[in-house]
Amino acid sequence: MITNHIYQGSVLDRIKDVESNSVQCVVTSPPYWGLRDYGTAEWVGGDKECDHVEKIFFSDNTGIRDHKKETTKKEIEGKSIQYKSKCKKCGAIRKDSQLGLEETPEEFVNNLVKVFKEIKKVLKDDGTLWLNLGDSYAGNNSRASNNGRAGYGNKREGVYMKTGKGLKTKDLVGIPWRVAFALQSDGWYLRQDIIWHKPNPMPESVKDRCTKAHEYIFLLSKSPQYYYDSDAIRDKPYYGEEVGANKRSVWSINVKPYKDAHFAVFPEKLPELCIKAGSKEGDVVLDPFFGSGTTGWVAQRLKRKWLGIELNSEYIKIANKRFNQYELFKV
Q1: Which CATH class is domain 5-39+98-329?
Q2: Least buried of 91, 190, 204, 288, by fewest C-beta within 10 Å?
Q3: What is the pTM of this model?
């Protein structure tokens, strides 16, 4: 089997290229629901010269067409919105394989269940899945973000105001636990909720709640017994201890940007802990939402083999540049 390789395309398409029962450990962070469009859509049919954009205009001096009452005239003046699925000007259809732009959280959760059902097929019977998930607020209309892999306002990305059934604007959607329970219902063993505490969270301008300074990492397994090396990630010894304590379920790890990426990435310590606990040297580690390649980078440093799947060609360029630097500077 090919290893240390990035497959370009959607997870559901490219996971078929990975051998069944070949992966020991999966460490990944899927796109967050309702936050960003990473620019992978294509328009099919219609007029190739059309911009597929609907200009914002005001129907009168007080109202704004097709916008919520809480959206002010000042906030959107001079902006435009691209049609979501079908261009009303030329009839083109928007095709996109990325996750995160579903209209409801239920649809997003269902799509992730489908993805991880296929990933389970390539995972060894004693393998583990370490799943980082960020949350969203219904009706979010701010470019600020409190998650670990958010963008920095790059023009290729946009923030999308999403709600769903039973959700009110400003509701915390609860995506991590929705996904965790759905995977549990689909047969995964939900073994642990780990809190990723961020000592340096991204600032937020909110005044009616606390600044978000944590995310979840879920440890899931395919079988009731699975490979887990607790010694590899023990906490540093306290006074009077020789080997240190069993790793606690709260991990304090700073968010760290990667200089070549316009979005925040996994801090290397995060996948390092997952990979050390979930695999041995020579094992295969998979990240089906590869991004800039931090999981693969850390796996290679820890003498594991790795595989990545990534839809966005720009991110693959960043990852390849990163690995070329690794080959150039490794000792």
Answers
A1: alpha beta
A2: 91
A3: 0.79
